[in-house]
Amino acid sequence: MRILLVEDEAALAAQVRASLADAGYAVDVATDGIDACHLGEHEPYDAVILDLGLPRLDGLTVLRRWRSAQVNVPVLILTARDSWTEKVEGIDAGADDYLAKPFRMEELLARIRALIRRAHGMAVPELQCGPVRMNPRAGTVSVDGATVVLTSHEFRVLDYLMHHPGAIVSKTALTEHIYAQDFDRDSNTIEVFVGRLRRKLGVDVIETVRGQGYRLRPPPGPGNADAPSTRA
């Protein structure tokens, strides 16, 4: 999953970026409203963390421009501790959630996970496809209860597919959502990651749709539904 962090306070931005990266997200950072506006309109993100007090263009204006341009990415706004008016204005401008400064990083990460789940119609935190289970909070994957150890990029590929069950996901889309903007991207490595995932999972849940991409489906067998699901 790929996150846009819009924060002009350098120390806080570095701290949040590091925590997001440790949690398995690809992160782009914008330090002013003009850059944020451009990135949000031209890059595909799974969620945005948006500070309202930005140079060059304030966060509320950025958010309103995104929504006017039909940019529907989930947005978590950061506000001053006691500024209830900013919270109201942010929600009215199209924000999906807010968090007051100062905040605990664990709460920020929990809210981002919730925003991404809701954006994909998922109400519970653990994802499941047949015998494969993923816990994004813990960063764990298991097959029939046995833990599977994945690299960070393998986890990102599986995470994105698990959030899009039954949908055909192109290599381009995977590349755009598992790498940050400043990473040297190569869509051919997606085939490598998928191949490794298939070997490590040991079950046939990732289907190749020739000429289009990949689709996550549970393996055939008793007790398996026709499409992946979420489980508590």
UniProtKB/TrEMBL annotation:
One of its GO terms (molecular function) is phosphorelay response regulator activity. The keyword Phosphoprotein applies. Residues 124-218 form the OmpR/PhoB-type domain. CDD domains: REC_OmpR_EcPhoP-like, trans_reg_C. PROSITE patterns: OMPR_PHOB, RESPONSE_REGULATORY. SMART domains: REC, Trans_reg_C. Residues 2-116 form the Response regulatory domain. One of its GO terms (cellular component) is protein-DNA complex. Residues 124-218 bind DNA. The keyword Phosphoprotein applies. Keywords: DNA-binding, Phosphoprotein, Transcription, Transcription regulation, Two-component regulatory system. This is DNA-binding response regulator in two-component regulatory system with PhoQ. It comes from the Bacteria. The gene is phoP. Residues 212-232 are annotated as: Disordered. The modification 4-aspartylphosphate is found at D51. One of its GO terms (biological process) is regulation of DNA-templated transcription.
